[in-house]
Protein: ABC transporter ATP-binding protein
Organism: Amycolatopsis halotolerans
Amino acid sequence: MVENDTPVVLDTVSKRFGSTAAVQSVSWAPLRGQVTALVGLNGAGKSTLMRIVTGLIRPTEGTVTVRPSRDGGRALSAMIEAPALFNGLTVRRNLEMHRILTGADAAEVARAVELAQIGDVLKRRAGTLSQGYRQRVAMAQSLLGSPDLLLLDEPTNALDPEAIVQLRTMIRTVADEGTAVVVSSHQLRELEGTADALALLHGGRILYDGPFDSFVGPPTLRVRVAGSDGAETARLTALLREKQIDAAQTDDGIRAVADLAADSIAQQIFSTAVKADIELIELTHLAPTLEEAFHVAIAGARS
Ligand SMILES: Nc1ncnc2c1ncn2[C@@H]1O[C@H](COP(=O)(O)OP(=O)(O)OP(=O)(O)O)[C@@H](O)[C@H]1O
């Protein structure tokens, strides 16, 4: 990782509110050019972590290093909590105020208007907008000044399905241009296909920090054999491992990893069992879902 790839680096950051450990020993550095999904259940610590990154609250322990922008733009920009707009001013005036504050030029405003799809409401007073449109305007504002890091806390909350699709396009575009985009959500599926990376928070701790696609492990085969004492299961497990098949004995039989060549692995398991005179009673292909992986990770943390 080159230094410039990480606009912010958190090193063993913790935050306590009285007896509540909201964030616990988090070391994390979202990458430029990537959309990172910051996911966790209600109360997992997502908003607290984002507020720490922006400097809105100070960590109890650990350090946050925000690197100066390499392009002379803003180091970071964030949309956290309810959109803060000047209700008496038109959307255009709101954007103009932000343009001046961030040093953006008119072309950047036009682009933000386009990306957030708010061209139709520029003349409306912000106070008359629906919640979803307020959120879109706030998002357009957050894009001004070419931030190196863009933090969006639960940005889909007030958005209709069409606006959610537009949001995905917007964050993808911004990330492709080199910004590190972090989007928090309590729904893992919401950013599937858009996010490159995933940070899974639970109880203030990061349970997973890595590529989105690797979070869900490879498919497996569930194998069960006749006989109740487990001896045949152990024998078949050993034979499969001799054949370099990634097999492990579980409570209900054997799990064999079946990534790209699932059919050929299933065939090998079948023929190995036949040759060893082991009677198979089940050979099932299991493809894990995002939700299962999420619940397994959280259950692991609870146990
Ligand atoms: N200002 C505060 N004072 C006291 N406790 C707080 C404060 N802010 C957050 N907490 C607590 O810290 C924990 C993490 O809260 P946080 O809002 O960061 O979670 P979250 O993942 O953003 O949740 P949600 O998805 O519900 O928004 C919770 O137990 C919450 O009650």
